[in-house]
Amino acid sequence: MKKVLTTFKTVLLSLVFTTVAYAADTSAEFPDSMSVADAHAETSTAVIDSAQKLSPFDHLGHNMLLSAFGWPLGFHMLGGALTYKFSMENNDLMVARFAARQDQLAYSIAFGPGMMMGTFFPILVPGYMYFISDNRALNNTGAVAVQATAVAFLYNNILKAISAREHPDAELNSGERSRDFKWGFFRRGVFYGWPSGHSMTNAAMAMSIASYNRDKPLVVAGCALYAGYIATSMVLGAKGEAHWFSDAVAGTLMGASIGWYIGSVFYKDKVGEKQTPPRVTIAPLFYDDTKGAVLGVRI
Hints:
Layout: H1 2-24, H2 33-42, H3 45-51, H4 60-69, H5 72-88, H6 91-101, H7 104-132, H8 136-163, H9 175-178, H10 197-212, H11 217-236, H12 245-271, E1 279-287, E2 290-298
Antiparallel strand pairs: 1-2
Helix pairs in contact: 4-12, 5-12, 7-8, 7-10, 7-11, 8-10, 8-12, 10-11, 10-12, 11-12
């Protein structure tokens, strides 16, 4: 109980410090609504898209940091929490057994294409948009998708290398197997693990395109449906042996939040909205027997 109280005090102090540091930051700038409106009036998004070619390296450091520790962190944590819930309550096992009982020919026809698309589209779609197309607007959308896909791929491989979760097996599935994580580093390489790489990279690619083209409802809807189809295919295809249900849920949540965040940053460039750089604050923390440091990120 004492350890729990000490931890609670530490977290509370961290929150108080972060709040005070943010409030004391008098240099924080807020966008002037009139200047943003003027920018919209003077320059259309089509003109910006045709005049300036974006690069996948634009805002790269900023986006790598804040797609992990900015507001997408909430979705990353939600993915982890749902994985714990679904594995502990045997939801993963029930879905895997359901997939194994289905007609494999019908399910191969329905979800086999999704598994193939999930493997190759994160390379082919952004690659065509950015490197091959002669359309400047499509080039810029491709630059956004290239960056989002690469960032999601990097983070996914780090998580897989650390988590090393066992894959489902139609003949050996059990609740214990769905909870078989070997935490460490490269305990099972990067092909076994959590979350689903296909779900994460495809959701990042699709939602970055949707975010950058948020003024086109059909594009947003199509990207969301695509991400959902890929995640479903990874759970129900191949006799349910590709991934656990929670692998796909977590991967989709993480990838979609990364993609939407990165697309939002580039969208601000497209509409001429001012970017606010993140401010990182580190301070020592000493309280009772607790010693450490507090990291605050203002976005």
